[in-house]
Write a structure and sequence with these properties.
The protein is built from five helices and two strands, in the order H-H-H-E-E-H-H. The protein is mainly alpha-helical and 135 residues long.
């Protein structure tokens, strides 16, 4: 069981998406991508709030939503941990769920590309360049 640091998350302050939603979406992607495994301890609400200069209630709301949907579970003495997968999903299902998490971001990017009147080849070339770049 791994314990993750509070800087696991990042916030886009200029985004129109509420901060608690940003946290929820990032946690979903980290779980779907395998960076957060079942049983891994999540950083405490206080630690995340301090690291990101957030109100602890914002972090608590995100954790509460993730708990309601079954992504996180509360363990006595451990705080929040990544929930066990109900059944081991097939690779195809896992790919489908990860793809579904990425789709809204790509839809927003596609809308912006259309608004900027960029042709699809230019956009795809830029996306390929970004995708292959080292973080």
């Amino acid at each position: 069981m791994a314990t993750h640091p509070p800087n696991l998350f990042s916030i886009a302050t200029g985004s129109s998406e509420p901060i608690y939603r940003q946290l929820v979406e990032q946690a979903r992607r980290l779980i779907a991508g395998g960076q957060l495994a079942p049983g891994d301890a999540m950083p405490s609400v206080r630690d995340i709030a301090q690291a990101l200069a957030l109100n602890p209630m914002t972090v608590s709301k995100a954790y509460g939503l993730l708990e309601l949907e079954g992504a996180l579970t509360r363990r006595r003495g451990l705080g929040m941990v990544v929930a066990d997968a109900p059944d081991a999903p097939s690779a195809a299902h896992s790919l489908a769920s990860r793809t579904a998490l990425l789709r809204p971001t790509l839809e927003r990017a596609a809308l912006e590309a259309r608004q900027l009147e960029l042709d699809p080849d230019t956009v795809l070339a830029l996306f390929n360049q970004i995708l292959k770049a080292k973080p």
